[in-house]
Amino acid sequence: LLVVAVLLALSGLITFVGQLDNVGKGDFGISDALSFVLLVLPQRAFEFMPVAALLGALFGLSRLAAHSELIVLRAAGVTPLRLATSVVAVGILIASLNAALGEFISPPLERYAEQQRALAKYTDLNLSAEQSIWLMHEGLIINASPRSESNWGGGVYVFDFDDERNLTGVGRADSASLGPDQRWTLRSIVETRLESGQLRSLTEESRKLSAGISPELIRFSEVYPDNMTGRDLRGYINYLRDNDLDASSYEIAFWGRVAGPVAIVLMTLLAMPFAFRFQRDSGTSVTMAIGVIIGLIYFLASRTLANSGQVFDIDPMLIAWAPSLALGLITMVGLIRLR
Fold it and tell me: Which of 59, 72, 141, 170 has the CA that lies 20 to 30 A from 130?
């Protein structure tokens, strides 16, 4: 718990500093930044748990070793295998609690945090999102079904109103994309306009539309892997496959959730060889330093594989399980040498 608290404190401070750039935009203030940090901390805890498990196990076992308690246990007939069984039991408990955190608590809290941040920053927009999103901006009401953060492939409806809030036109585009300049590009448009009491139909291949809406504002309405539970990921992957759409990022996220508990158990086991290797008072600092290095390597390797796997079209299951397989191999070698 102490290790988790330290990691969350550092992560929270970094996140808070990052949110200071948003202070003053719309109604977003210091209190909103603090609320955002508190709401996303459960997700950060879920992500950091494998590293926290390693550091916690290293700290606990190294303290036992520093006070010669491991030697006493060995003299009393406690074998490394029996000690490893106890360590695995603790690892399974931590992994189970973390799985519950990532499945039931952190995803809805992070989605809510992003939604509240967007609403506070863009006070001139009214929006609501379930499977589609409604946006209102300067006389336009837009309804769209998002496929991703910048591509809208489920149909886009645009309702145009005059200054007296009278409907002057209704248009539908088959798809739309949102560029970095916050301008929409509508494609295959069919529009009906009311002009001088008469209806007039128009068709266009494409049209630029300035709505002043950034990708950040609509991000929370997107089906985003980090904000989804394992059950939701499985269902959405099936939906994408059924419609011949790319599901690689969601498959990586899903298998990452499956492999996560295994990684936590392996991390706790990995602490044993180092704890027995450094059995002096100075060994605690050495083992903790080693744990930090291993944790950073694991964290960076997992993120790098997840990002590069989509680029090079690597099997999502292999990407998600590769760090755990490497951990398993290293742990097995360490335990064999311990015997």
Answer: 170
Q: Which residue has the tokens 């994408």?
A: 240
Q: Phi and psi at residue 142, in whole multiples of 5°?
A: -120, 130
CA distance 54 to 270: 7
The string of DSSP letters for 187-211 reads EEEEEEEEETTEEEEEEEEEEEEE-
Name the CA dihedral angle for 320, 324, 325, 329, rounded to a multiple of 10 degrees: 170
**Mean pLDDT computed over 92-97:** 97
User: What's the CA angle centered on 117, arms 112 and 118, to 5 degrees?
Assistant: 100
What average pLDDT does this structure show over 259-285? Answer: 83
* pLDDT digits 0-9 by tens, 141-166: 888 766 554 555 557 888 898 888 88
Nearest alpha carbon to residue 201 among 189, 210, 185: 189
Q: Is the pLDDT of residue 185 over 80?
A: yes
Domain extents in the chain:
45-104+223-338, 127-212
Q: Which amino acid is at 106?
A: S
Distance separating alpha carbons of residues 223 and 226, to the nearest angstrom: 9
Task: Please check the confidence at residue 282 and state whether its pLDDT lies above 70.
Answer: no
**Distance, CA of 7 to CA of 9 (rounded, Å):** 5
